[in-house]
Design a protein that fits this description.
By secondary structure, the protein is α+β, with helices and mostly antiparallel strands. The chain has two domains: about 100 residues, PH-domain like (Roll); about 50 residues. It is built from three helices and eight strands. The strands form two sheets. The protein has a five-stranded antiparallel beta sheet with strand order 1-2-3-4-5, with helices on one face. The longest helix is centred in the first third of the chain and has 23 residues. The chain is elongated and about 80 Å long. The two termini are about 30 Å apart.
Length: about 160
C-alpha cells in the first residue's frame, strides 16, 4: 500500500506498507475460531478414547500460530520516504525504527531497475550506494510508487526554479 502526504509546499511523505488482508482484532477472531474448532474436535475424540488426538491438536495449533506470527510480523513492515527540496530521508522498520538513511537531494537519484525475473526494483542512489525501497510491494503498487515519486521530484524541481 502506497500513500502520499503533502506536508507543505516543499515537503512530502511517502508511506509504504505490504498489503494485509487481516488486521487488528480480525486476526484474533480468525485464530481464535480456528483454535476453538480444533480444540473442540480434539476434546470430543479424547472423550471417546482417542487420547493421542489432543497432544497432536496442540502441536497443530502451535505450528499454525507460529506461521501466522511470522506472517503478521512480515506484514507489519513499514517504510517512510521523506522528500523535500533539501533532503531525501528513508526510514525502515516494523514497530520501531530499524534503518535510517538521509542524503542531500541534489546528490540523490531515483533509479528504476528490472531484475532477472523482470520484476521492478526501485531505489535511491547516492555516492555509489543504492537504497532499495518497496521491495515487499507488488508490481502494481511499485508502479504507483514510481509515478508518485517521479511526480514529487518533478514538482519540487519546478518549485525550485
Amino acid at each position: 500500500m502506497v500513500s502520499v502526504e503533502k506536508i507543505d509546499s516543499t515537503n512530502y511523505l511517502v508511506s509504504l506498507r505490504p498489503n494485509s488482508s487481516l488486521t487488528g482484532i480480525y486476526r484474533v477472531i480468525f485464530l481464535g475460531s480456528i483454535a476453538f474448532v480444533c480444540i473442540t474436535i480434539a476434546i470430543i475424540f479424547f472423550i471417546f478414547g482417542a487420547y493421542l488426538i489432543l497432544p497432536f491438536a496442540g502441536l497443530e495449533l502451535a505450528v499454525l500460530f507460529s506461521a501466522f506470527y511470522f506472517s503478521f510480523k512480515w506484514s507489519s513492515k513499514k517504510e517512510k520516504i521523506y522528500i523535500s527540496n533539501e533532503i531525501v530521508k528513508i526510514e525502515k522498520g516494523t514497530n520501531k525504527l530499524e534503518y535510517q538513511w538521509e542524503e542531500f537531494r541534489t546528490f540523490t537519484s531515483f533509479n528504476i531497475q528490472k531484475d532477472k525475473n523482470k520484476f521492478m526494483r526501485l531505489s535511491f542512489r547516492s555516492k555509489g550506494k543504492d537504497i532499495y525501497v518497496g521491495d515487499f510491494l507488488n508490481e502494481e503498487d511499485k508502479k504507483i510508487l514510481k509515478e508518485c515519486v517521479s511526480e514529487i521530484i518533478h514538482d519540487l524541481n519546478i518549485k525550485k526554479y
